[in-house]
Amino acid sequence: MSRRVAIGFVTILIVGLIWLMVTSVFGVIPSGRFPSPAETWSALIHVSGRGYGGGDLLLHAYNSLRLVVMGFVFAIITGVPLGLLMGWSRRAEALINPVFLIIRPIPPLAWIPLAILWLGLGDAAKILVIWFAAFVPSVINTFAGVRNIDRPVIEAAYMLGMPRMRFVTEVLVPGASPMMFTGLRLSLQASWTTLVAAELVGAFYGLGRVLNVAQQDLYPGMILVGMGAVAILGWATTRALGMAEARVMSWNTAALAAKG
Amino acid sequence: MGVIQFKNVGKVFGPKESGFVALKDINLEIADKEFVAIVGPSGCGKTTCLRLVAGFDNPTDGAVMVDGTPIKRPGPNRAVVFQQFALFPWKSVYDNIDIGLRNLNVPKAERQSRIAAILNLMNLEPYAEHFPHQLSGGMQQRVAIARAYVLDPDVLLMDEPFGALDAQTRVVMQEELVRLARKNPRTVLFITHAVEEAVYLADRVVIMTRAPGRIKEVLDIASIRKAEDWDSHEKIEDVMDLESFVHLRTQIWRSLREEKADQHA
Fold first, then answer.
1. Residues of chain A whose C-beta is under 8 A from some C-beta in B?
2. C or N: which end of chain B has fewer Cβ atoms within 10 Å?
3. Which has the higher per-residue pLDDT, A25 or B102?
């Protein structure tokens, strides 16, 4: 593990060095096209200190993170139960699936104009769009997860006289959870993509707003800072989800460990 | 009590007129504490028989009853042991066995003592906190049998329970089941395609025909077992060596082979 981490660091170091070489040292890429490390650093200082695009970096990052978490959590709360229901009841599936088939091919970003028209440039429109982007993969993967549970396991639950609520919490949810988490990871990615896009279109705060203003100001250093901030937050939230997954599915990691 | 009755049972999958006829005119009565094995060619409907008693499927014609009550749905008085074990992978061995008792609202202290007893009986004590994936197939099936037995069911339904195990494990489990059944007799309906297994375990062996599945023959093993004193032999291979055992086995084999020949004629 530490060896892997070390190799990872070396790779990052090399990429950093190449970056330094082609921009500052040899000037292969002019700074108007891609910022040097020094310019990026100064942009970072700029946005963290004096602020940029209406706020400092923490404010922008906080706003973006808040919207993603809200949209994502809202999508889980609504999507997972719906997926469970569709996986469980053929009738619910027959009822709901046609709607999904129509809505699914529409890219979440295509909903942004409508969301803004309905709810304006504030938080509500963005949460709606993020919810929409994250909702579909949560539902579909939870649904598939339920359908993937071995038939005899379900029959065993019946045979054991499982009450309805316990059947949901102790059979359907854990049984579907491997695929459910795959869906949630996709949902989280979709949430970030959609958020940045929505903020690019129009926002008062947020990392997308930073990117948008920096583009108008022809400020490549700041664009890179914005991209980096999105990358770090995206990584951190994915990591948090992974930790939740490891916790919930300890039985599965135990199984993997036993297999070596 | 645990009397199983099949009365003129028929099962058709799909539309009644044009569907697949899995069972036809099944009449069978299994006495309380009797061990009955059903053998037959694959696709003869023997598993369907078990599923009807379990309540996973309902008959198209006739009635399947336990203690005189027609079966509508699955329930813990008819415990099932599945070929693929069907344990809950996300629950420890202990919790897998516990869940059925929890569903019956058995008080915690009693649950603990019953689980301790069954773990001891099945030699599972060291594995109580293991997850199913961490156990071999034989151990998993022990857990599944423990999970069924702990419910103290009227009827135990076993659907090719040793079919997925290797030959050695299979023999150990067969001996184990005999030991268990002696200590704690139950009405057992046992599905298998292994003839030796049926003769070794069962009081009666039911031979079924190819689809549509009917009962072809019912052989009484218990009287021969008693007369020839099979139970004095501890090891399965010693029993299988006895002339009376070989004779019965051959008889069933012939009967099954006729079924296959019929098909090609």
1. 150, 152-153, 155-163, 166, 170-171, 174-175, 177, 249, 251-252, 254-255, 258-259
2. C
3. B102
Q: Is residue B197 part of a domain?
A: yes
pLDDT in tens, B153-205: 999 999 999 988 888 888 888 888 888 888 888 999 999 989 999 999 999 99
Is residue B165 included in any domain, yes or no? Answer: yes
Closest residue by Cα to residue B161 from B148, B153, B151, B150: B148
- The answer to whether A238 and A190 have CB atoms below 8 angstroms apart is no
Q: Do A174 and B54 touch (CB under 8 A)?
A: no
d(CA B158, CA A92): 34
User: Is B239 inside any structural domain?
Assistant: no
Find the CB nearest A159 among B80, B91, B92. Answer: B80
Q: What is the pLDDT of residues B6-45, one digit of tens each?
A: 999 999 998 988 889 999 999 999 999 999 999 988 888 8
Q: Which of A158, A4, A132 is nearest to A74 (CA)?
A: A132
**What CATH number does residue B183 fall under?**
3.40.50.300
The reply to whether B249 falls in a domain is no
**Contact predicate A47/A222, CB 8 Å:** yes
